[in-house]
Amino acid sequence: MRKSSVTARSHSGACRCEICGDNRPFELPKDLYERFIHGEVVIFAGAGVSTENHAVYPYTLYQEVCGELDIRPEERPAFPDVMTKYCSQPDGRANLLRKIKDRLEYVRSFPELYRRATRFHSELSTLSVVEEIVTTNWDSYFEDECGATPFVTAEDFAFWKVPGRKVLKIHGSVDSYGSIVATREDYNLCEQRLTTGVLGSTLRMLLATKTIVYIGFSFSDDDFIHLQSALVAEMKGLCPQSYIVTLDHSSDARFRERNLTPIYTDGTHFVSEVKKLFVSKRQLLGDERYIGVSKFLRKILKAHDQLSDIDPQRFPDVVFGMSYQDGFIHALERILALRHTGYYSHACNPIKMAKFYIDTLGPEKLKSRKYHDAAYAEGYGDGLLFFIADDDLRDMFPMYFAFGESKVIRSLRDYQRALRRAPRVSPRKHAFAKRLIHEHNTEAGFVLHHTPFLL
Asked: What pTM was computed for the model?
């Protein structure tokens, strides 16, 4: 089958630092690209994309526990067997949970370590076409960095059909210590849940209908081998083609025996290059869009402060300028706040919302003579359009608004002139502004604020 090339950059010319050294070029299979487009890819994440890699910690939890138990590296017992031995000691289970908690809190206390631990999650966050994630990790990074709702216990699955990104945490969560799967007994109980009950049913549904991309696993992981074997056996060979993003070339034959097509590169780099392909085809907005949003938000907030110095008793139409800026500010702030969900990175979403605010909601408010709401809707729509716009167009966006003005107002001086013209240019709206100011008894130095609601 013909494949679509994702990157042609030579690895020899790439950065070889600890973070980027494994960013190897690869080709994205065309069928996998098509599955991504249609939202039919599930990311199955292992420990390698979280704290359990040497870019974060110099030693893994497994190595730390083996050291405390005096287990020699060459013995290499399976992870759950080591944890079982550790938990067999007095207060062993409590000490293990405390150790897990301490490792995660240590990472969170150092921003550099946290950035390293969440590189994959942060990159994945704006890949809006990925809505379902499965993980064996205990941390809350998919919740915090990708806006995913966690599904851990059977009761959680009553809400599986609620819209939004989801993460199925089959080995439990640090936010619910009783759910953590670590010992051999835990693994056996987990396997039962995967073959019976709602957790297993949900996972089998995903396996049967979606393409699974495993990231953060290696063939040496007992956890991965056992889990993947059980899932494939349960599906009786009916699941679609699956992929594994890995650096383990030595296991190529064994991956393919398990119906896994290997893609040899770093997991974070894989997601980054998939996103670049989507951006090049205008199916996704690039992450650099958010940088300009933060910069313009600072400018319009400064302009907003300047308007507060204008006397609303003398120039009541300033309420429309303030409402417009409130809308613009709220749009930009919401775009930044929801970045981690990927909602606005999907090009269709901000376009549809901007059209609704400018073409539908604004005219409705004008018709009902709620002019401050109409100005707010105009500002909110412009904020959405600003996010979509290329950099050269962003320089043309106004920060000031007045009804009846045919030219874009970009400076405070021009806006003040527009306020002086307002009684003549827009008498009906001017009269509305005077009534609004009078009703709220607004004085100089205080202006009305439009909240993020349009009633």
From this structure: 0.89
